[in-house]
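Morning F.,

Quick status update on the modeling queue. The single chain you submitted on Monday has been processed. Sequence for confirmation:
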Amino acid sequence: MINIFLGLIMFMSITFLLLGIKRKSKLTIFFGAIAFIAPLLYLGFRNWIVLLPLVPAISFVVSDLVIKKRDSAQG
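Structure tokens below.
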């Protein structure tokens, strides 16, 4: 049951990521990346709680890189 819920969260996070890319919203991409990485850690690693503090930092880097790549591709 929890795997279905986490899969649903990951699907919604991909939707947020695509919406953030479309609107050029760094905050939407940030929250989408957090919602994608946290369940991924839970499903993929046994000691996932150790890596949980890194999720916001990784999400910030992802959002920054996505916005920069989109701007450089258009400019």
